[in-house]
Amino acid sequence: MTRPRARKAIYKMGEKKVRIVFCSLFQDAGEATRALELARGLRRQCPPGLSPEIIFLSHGGRFDEAFAEAGFSVTPAKPALPGVGFRQDLKTSALEFVGDAGLAAELLRGEYEAMLEIRPDFVIHGFWPVAGMAAKLTGTPEICYLPVPFEPKAFSTWLLQDLPDFVGPLTLLPKTVRMKIMAAIPKSLKLKIPLLRQKNLIRAFELAGGKENRPENLFDMLKSDFTIINDFSVFYEGKPLPENFAVTGPLYPKGTRDAEIDPEIQRRLKPDSGKLKIFCTLGSSGGKDFLLEAIRALKRMENCTSVVLCPPSVCPFQEAKNVAGGSPDLYLTDAFVPALKVNKMADVVLSHGGQGTLQTAVASGTPVVGFAVQPEQQINLEHIVSFGAAVRLPSRRWKADAICGALKTVGTDPHYRSKMQILQKLLTEIDGETEAAKAIWNFCSSQR
């Protein structure tokens, strides 16, 4: 691949059209829905005299239709991915975001070539290092939206205070001990964990002709001209952040008021049932084993009724039904549900720690029991835990007995719901979509 001379796109307030490309891991529901909410906000908050041309650059998937229905252009990027789920599509491994070096090179080449053809004024991406590298190769200004401030100083000092689950058996230690161990680890060592290295993506950058500014880790790949954090500012009070970072508030799909709820869900989660009501939503990154263990736990729960989402990309529906064993108080579905409405019907949400899922639980005022499969989810959960509205189980302790115990604790202690309702009130005072859009337009105007 021959790299052209870097072009610095200039934003001029006098121009009528501003071309913006959204490119992210649209196989992941959280990344896709945040991008869509942000694009809508940019369209609504566009300064007078400007007309944003918003293009979604996609490798295919179920959200392409949603982008188009919202009135945005969708441009395909090579290669087209199967659309099963991000783990399957990217062949992810324990340490590699893209598990196949050849696929990583194809993805970067496809986005690089598409950006050269589209020639956007700005590229907006989420936690998707491929788009970050493609933007750098083409010399296009980058804007990044992230669930947490993923940057070296924060990561090595205050962002991750508990041992990450991937360290193994040490996560079985008491939390106070884990936190002391984490605090004792040198900052430089925290920045050298293998997960940050991403050798396949670095090799893809080299194959793309990236001889200058070669990224050394994920931080370099995601480093942008401007970064917004889609989270509560209360979680970052007194915490130092780079000048080009802005915490703009939660950003999650609100759904539609007329969305219908499955009658079976309504029956299981009816308010006068006298039973503890659980909504299990582990998302596409939860993993089959975690989902099946949650089903085993819910099957054991007494005086409890549960609704469990079973995404086809995570687990074959029949396999999940076999584990459920026909339990009368356990309803499984692989269909879309209006998450906010169903969250409000539950007493406890069982979650994998994805930001969109957690913010939806906050919006409904429903406390959470969860686990994390990656550091970002762990940080998301720990924020809610520190507020007193959730319990997080280390992934190695995600066993039926521990899940049942946590559900009983959170479901019967009103403290958790009252704390979540405080967060819920904070959420009603924040318009994360508007704040994020305004921050981005302000950044764009500064690039004149």
Automatic annotation (TrEMBL):
At the top level, the lineage of the source is: Bacteria
InterPro entries xref list: EryCIII-like_C
* Record GO terms (molecular function): glycosyltransferase activity
Erythromycin biosynthesis protein CIII-like C-terminal domain span: 333-423
Gene3D superfamilies registered for this protein in UniProt? Glycogen Phosphorylase B
Q: Mind telling me what this protein is named?
A: Erythromycin biosynthesis protein CIII-like C-terminal domain-containing protein
Q: Can you name the source organism?
A: Caproicibacter fermentans
